[in-house]
Amino acid sequence: MTTWYQRQPFSRLPLTSSSPMPSLSLVSLDHLSLVTAVGDDTMSYLQGQLTCDLISMEKGKSTLAAHCDAKGKVWSVLRLFHHADGIAYVQSASLSGAQLTELKKYAVFSKTTIEASELVLLGLMGENADSTIERMFSATAEVTPTQSGTAVKIEANRWLLAVNEAEADDILSQLSGEAELADSSLWTLADLRAALPLLHENNISEFIPQALNLQVIGDAISFKKGCYTGQETVARAKYRGINKRAAFLLTGEASTAPQPGDTIERSVGENWRSGGAVLSGYRFDDGKVLALAVLPNNLDDDSQFRPANEPDCRLEIIQLPYSLEDND
């Protein structure tokens, strides 16, 4: 694993819940890992393992996808894109080893090489990010090559860069005095505000893709392509309505940031019962927290929530940045 991040002055930005975001931030994405796949059978092999229709993905686009086990439970949520001569994806570094081993289980029978990459992962975000990427890389698409790697647009004014250490040093030099350096918590906050799910090791094989809202986020799930691992469960959840959970944004005040795998309790009459699990969380310097948590999708309007480890805290659901109505 590269030690490049530890040699740079990335740090947590002091933010309150009402703080404006910096106009440009260069973010260490050391909480993510990059995997590359190359070879004649790469597309067909991954097509049979992941929920997205990878074969239909344009070279200038990226997509989220789930990698499921045979029962349709999600091993990992991936961001896939064309990279060099093959495909690459990013996911949480905490589960990368286990997920990669599972994904490669049957690759021995195909002409594809799937391996962890040593490239540096950086984020560029803020109101000046799109114009900066265009200036630095002459980007005309949402996925564009750099000198040594690839730049991937996540959403408006937020980009992920997968580059070698020399190019990472060059980017750092070019943006000196222009971009604030921030640790990965700023990227986590952006993912939270966009309600984009990221699984960590505490959440492996706990949820089907629809419980993570992947059916309504871009093209993360294809219901029209051929078979893939876990497809039967994913299809049954759609056509028979068996999914009873969804990911919701929660906010409130707490003494610590909600952590992946933490239990969220909900009120049932005068009692409290386990209601769901945290996917990711962030705590502002004024004590406000934001969390993405998987909860029942048939909640009463007056339901109350609290972290199981902070019984005096109260959390409330806030509106997602997208609709949970599946129009596919």
Automatic annotation (TrEMBL):
<comment type="similarity">
    <text>Belongs to the tRNA-modifying YgfZ family.</text>
</comment>
<keyword id="KW-0819">tRNA processing</keyword>
<dbReference type="GO" id="GO:0016226">
    <property type="term" value="P:iron-sulfur cluster assembly"/>
</dbReference>
<feature type="binding site">
    <location>
        <position position="187"/>
    </location>
    <ligand>
        <name>folate</name>
    </ligand>
</feature>
<protein>
    <recommendedName>
        <fullName>tRNA-modifying protein YgfZ</fullName>
    </recommendedName>
</protein>
<keyword id="KW-0290">Folate-binding</keyword>
<keyword id="KW-0963">Cytoplasm</keyword>
<dbReference type="InterPro" id="IPR023758">
    <property type="entry name" value="tRNA-modifying_YgfZ"/>
</dbReference>
<dbReference type="GO" id="GO:0009451">
    <property type="term" value="P:RNA modification"/>
</dbReference>
<comment type="function">
    <text>Folate-binding protein involved in regulating the level of ATP-DnaA and in the modification of some tRNAs. It is probably a key factor in regulatory networks that act via tRNA modification, such as initiation of chromosomal replication.</text>
</comment>
<dbReference type="InterPro" id="IPR029043">
    <property type="entry name" value="GcvT/YgfZ_C"/>
</dbReference>
<dbReference type="GO" id="GO:0005542">
    <property type="term" value="F:folic acid binding"/>
</dbReference>
<dbReference type="InterPro" id="IPR045179">
    <property type="entry name" value="YgfZ/GcvT"/>
</dbReference>
<dbReference type="InterPro" id="IPR017703">
    <property type="entry name" value="YgfZ/GCV_T_CS"/>
</dbReference>
<dbReference type="InterPro" id="IPR048451">
    <property type="entry name" value="YgfZ_barrel"/>
</dbReference>
<dbReference type="GO" id="GO:0008033">
    <property type="term" value="P:tRNA processing"/>
</dbReference>
<feature type="domain" description="tRNA-modifying protein YgfZ-like beta-barrel">
    <location>
        <begin position="243"/>
        <end position="309"/>
    </location>
</feature>
<dbReference type="Pfam" id="PF21130">
    <property type="entry name" value="YgfZ_barrel"/>
</dbReference>
<dbReference type="GO" id="GO:0005737">
    <property type="term" value="C:cytoplasm"/>
</dbReference>
